[in-house]
Q: What sequence folds into this?
DNA sequence: AGGTCATCTCACC
DNA sequence: GGTGAGATGACCT
């Protein structure tokens, strides 16, 4: 399966997008998004998943166009334009296939509530749980921990109810992933995490 | 059936 | 204002 790489030189980050492409209807589907702190980090990821290969913009013409737009959108986002990546990317006729990625009502509910947040806003695990009619705030974290579409599904906007940052990218505590969460919030205009 | 959490609350210092 | 234990619910094996 092909993976498309976007270099965010401003922050020294690599965004990899694993996707599939169906020719009859020219539909792109995004399977996974990963954020890498370095080239080595990305290469380790490539090695671990032996079913993927880097895709340059030299395939199908329509695919090239979609990938090019995708790159522009992501770069705009990191430039600080407050884009709703989920709807913007869907407008490219890209299928994100949430039904396939979130199979239970609970997990789908978590995602749907989360997708209503706007850049610059934050919410918390407890509030999300309440909105789908349960107290299972820890389970909300479990779902977000496995978010296959970071950035697009804005799990970085979920912080703790007491105002602390909470985890990101499967990690808690001070590490590059939580620093990345701070960076994303800062890019969206949320200050207070320095 | 039992283990794992990206949490929360409350009772202690 | 920091720490630790217990509650807790959905998920995974």
A:
């Amino acid at each position: 399966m092909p993976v498309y790489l976007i270099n965010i030189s401003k922050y020294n980050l690599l965004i990899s997008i694993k996707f599939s492409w169906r020719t009859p209807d020219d539909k792109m589907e995004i399977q996974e998004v990963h954020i890498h702190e370095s080239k080595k980090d990305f290469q380790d990821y490539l090695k671990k998943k032996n079913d993927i290969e880097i895709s340059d913009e030299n395939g199908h013409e329509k695919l090239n166009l979609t990938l090019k737009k995708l790159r522009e959108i992501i770069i705009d986002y990191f430039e600080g334009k407050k884009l709703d990546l989920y709807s913007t990317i869907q407008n490219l006729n890209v299928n994100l296939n949430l039904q396939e990625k979130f199979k239970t009502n609970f997990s789908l509910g978590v995602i749907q509530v989360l997708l209503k947040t706007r850049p610059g806003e934050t919410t918390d695990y407890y509030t999300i749980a309440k909105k789908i009619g349960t107290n299972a705030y820890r389970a909300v974290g479990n779902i977000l921990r496995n978010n296959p579409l970071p950035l697009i599904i804005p799990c970085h906007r979920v912080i703790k109810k007491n105002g602390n940052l909470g985890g990101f990218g499967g990690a808690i505590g001070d590490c590059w992933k939580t620093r990345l969460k701070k960076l994303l919030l800062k890019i969206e205009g949320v200050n207070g995490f320095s």
Remarks:
- The radius of gyration of chain A is 17 Å.
- Residues 124-126, 129, 135, 137-145, 155, 158, 160-162, 165-172, 177-178, 181 of chain A lie near DNA strand B (CB under 10 Å from a C1').
- Chain A has a mean pLDDT of 94.
